[in-house]
Amino acid sequence: MVRAVSIVGHPDWSEGPLPLRHQEVEANAAARRTYFSTACGRILYGTADRPTRWHRLISLEDGAGPVFGVELLLPSPDRPDRALVVFHLTVPAYDGELLSILRTLAGRRGSGSRAPDLGALLPAWASLTSSSRAFTVAFSTFAQHELSRPPGAVQLDSWSTADTWLWHLASRTNGSDYPPDPDHADRLLAGRVVLSADWRGLVTRDGAAFLGLRPDQGDSDPFFGFAQLYTHTTYLDAIVIGIVQSSSIVEMIDEAARAFEADDLPRHLSRLEERAARFRTIYWLRDASVHGPANDILTAYQEQHHLSAKFDAVLTEIVDLNRIAQAQEGQYVSAALGVLTVVGLPFGAAFAVLQVLGADSPWSLLIAMAAALAGSGALLLTRFGRLLMRSMRPSR
Fold this sequence. Notes:
Blueprint lengths: L5 E2 L6 E2 L4 E3 L2 E3 L1 H7 L2 H8 L7 E5 L9 E7 L10 E6 L7 H9 L30 E5 L20 H11 L20 E3 L4 E5 L3 E6 L11 H9 L1 H24 L7 H18 L9 H13 L2 H51 L4 H19 L2 H9 L5
Helix pairs in contact: 1-2, 5-6, 6-7, 6-8, 6-9, 7-9, 9-10, 9-11
């Protein structure tokens, strides 16, 4: 069912997250900051002098279908090319419609709903990239006591009807898109989040879902209206933190993979180390809030995307690259000292002979330098000299 979650404000782009209200509770930026840690608040909502989030309320005249609000989030002001956009939708309350729209947003074949033109709702200076991939967050409740299975769902004995709904909504699939393996079906529910006796959540790689476990009483329901508000605001923001972490780690993995393509490995490695340290200090948050549900949701997202293992792998790769870079620098220094020794030895011997002979004429000096150059060239042509010269070449 869909609650009467009212929109606070006017239809225009404004700073801050989308302000929503249910009854006496208003989830504006100030209220949401109290839910999250100070570090999370800076990422999600910015500061007075450096805002990171803007919202726009969509009116019916915009022809956006189920979309009623849009948010733009810029986690790092220094990276305007790495922004996130959040579209808020409301869906009619009848079986199958929400799942159909989720399948459409995921690009599933044979979905019966028409996807709204999301790119048209963005300002002129922002656009959806061709590689952008939607992560969906769904909230659903039901009025009937006996909950029926999703349309086209595969029946599994180990799953309850609520589990089946949670997985199909979170994964944006029906039985024909991806039939779960009965022998390993419980693994698909590893991202389950226990919220209360009234509702449950499930976080998967591509989406999250929240489902009411008892009949919904509509607008008079004492809780589900607030649950819908939490889904659109604080619980969504916990997932946004995970998405920011995931995108940063993926970029560091790519940068580490291109290390040996860099013209200057030590400088490339220095930038990568600085980026990893900055990420660990600012973005690598394990506890987003003093409240349990947001932390559980963030942890479930991190586990589904293996973020801890990926970040540890990046740090290990940095250590290995450091070792290689130090070995290369040591090799260059040793080779340079060897070349200086090979080149300098004949010159030192020539000047010593001139000093012993007492010859100080220009012709004697020229003859000595020519002999020294010939000696240095001969030494560099030896196997040892060639080895020193090869050692000074940058490795690829």
